[in-house]
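Hey, I'm writing a tutorial for new members on how sequence and structure tokens pair up, and I'd like a real worked example in the thread rather than a made-up one. If someone can provide the structure for the chain below, I'll link this post from the tutorial.
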Amino acid sequence: MDAKQIRGLRPRLQRYLQRFDDCFPRCDTRSHLSKYVEGQLSDLPRKSVEPIALKTGVPVRTLQEFLSQHDWDQNRMVDRVQEIVRSEHASPHSIGIFDETSFVKKGDKTPGVQRQYCGAVGKQDNCIVTVHLNYAAADFHCLLDGELFLPESWSLDRDRCREAGIPDDVVYRPKSEIALELYDRARANGVEFEWVTFDEWYGVKPQFLRGFDQRKQKYVGEVHKHFHAWIDAPRVTRRPHRRGGRGRGKQVPRLVARSRPAPHVEDLLKYQLRKPRWQQLRLKDGEKGPMVCEVKHALVYIADENGLPSGPYHLLIWRNVLQRDEIKYFISNAPPETALHTLLRVAFSRWRIERCFEDQKGEVGLDHYEGRRYVGLKRHLAITAVSYLFLAQTREALKGEKPGADGLPSAHSGGGIGERLVA
């Protein structure tokens, strides 16, 4: 950036924040948004309420009340973020990415805090977990929405929830259910995704996969090695059957008698897919040289909510050539004729949301919330999305008309620019 561009950032930010004016019924409350965002965009090492207030000249108590007590609509703020993305960053190649992130916390007062698996440190720790939806198109990406994962221990203790300001209708829900709600909200705001993708912790939930089938949304999602699928769909019968001609017949339609249960995809690789050769692919990664991987592909059938085969679905089996015990499995409901390159491009797009988490924690203080109120956490997540969207849009505006990346990222890195897939 040159000096002229730097001088233009503050007016650009002021014009951008005006788009959220209608989230605030009072102008004095509205003015605190710019202070909070400026603090998040500053070089403060810690971007919680107190350092931001001291840097921007606002009483600490006032900024605390802005987050947890003042009257303004954080849901409308999230809707506005999504409306901006819909109107200014729509793409026929957009990808929605689901994932969760965690924030290490001390004490027991932060909403949703408990000892649980914390991805930030890679082990069990005292933390909170939030579920997010990311939007990615070409070089642009941002977080569209996020919601607290409320553990069962909190959900069952309503007195503790009320003390933290958690409404009675906010209860424990699986993370996959939260993810579907985030998707529905974005779609209601007009955001369209050509694809969605997610990791195996979401892919193991059959109802999560069926949710996208019902919504007619294409996905490529990682699944566990114990995910069940058939290469050849078992026969289904609609003929009623009664033992000895008496009693209530078995439910129909149903699998014919003595049908084999669907094997694990790991077993499909060992036995039924052993003979087809691995397709070797070379990913041009740049600095570290080419990364070589191998892929097997098959059309499979998976069980629906009634245990009947549905499909066909794509099964992708990815193996690292240098570490052959590193194997990933992916399922997709895309049309059978979809190109393998396209499926892999989507499957390995999850680095986008990981990069968003890294940037939001490192640059705008996503994990720096220190309050004890649920509404304060919700508002912190909303404002952080506002701040990051400004950074993403400013980067887009200042980078010029450079061509975007349409390559295939590796399984481990976000270096998507200029990569090619070579069979």
